[in-house]
Amino acid sequence: MKHRAIKDLKVLLVEDEENITRLLKDAIGENFHSFIIAKDGLEGIALFKKRRPDIVITDIEMPNLSGLEMARELKQIDPNIVIIMLSAFSEKEKFLSAIDVGVSKYFMKPFEPDDILEYIEQIIPKISNKLIGLGDEFTFNKSSNSLYKNDKFIALSKKEILFLSLMLRQKCEVIDVITIKKTLWNEEASDERVRTFIRRFREKTSKDLVLNITGVGYKLTINEN
Fold first, then answer.
1. What is the pLDDT of residue 4?
2. How far apart, in whole angstroms, are the C-alpha atoms of residue 8 and residue 128?
3. What is the spatial distance between Cα 211 and Cα 154, in angstroms, rounded to a whole number?
4. What is the pTM of this model?
5. What is 132-220's CATH number?
6. Beta strand 34-38 with 10-14: parallel, antiparallel or unpaired?
7. Pairing of strands 55-59, 82-87
8. In the chain, what are the domain boundaries?
9. CATH number for the segment(s) 4-129
């Protein structure tokens, strides 16, 4: 039985062999919210930054940038990203290198797509814990401090991430203006500065993501489903 949360996951497959790409897409691709494909490590990094997937499945040997080299880069961006490595090599050195990089799982070719799907289902609780559903179809990834709406990544400034993290710590409560001032600027700031900051945050995200509770403060909308 498929875990319900698997439909919320975004998977990035980085593979230069078209037959393997087709095999995995046809066999397990429809189980996920999206199944994104890159042909080498360089394209994989670019798509990772743009789409912020929850899981990366990658070949170990590819042109331009190998799976191991890409994995090292991705771990710099998000230390908690789940990386599943595919390899036709059985050398101990390759396997140990994958462990050293922080690869979550290693599958030797030929493999069964269902085995990969089964592994992903096993680790769903770990992945789901880092994702928070927000209002207006936004999701926040706690491990990478990234916000996205459906498949669109929303680039936030350091202060915007700090503001969103503050709101998440007190999910269902109204945050007063004084607390926002102290958290963001650690100094005296005018009410107008706070209003301007939140107006710009709403313009970048959505007016329905942060609600203005007149005379009290601001509240984040959370998806309780």
1. 52
2. 9
3. 19
4. 0.65
5. 1.10.10.10
6. parallel
7. parallel
8. 4-129, 132-220
9. 3.40.50.2300
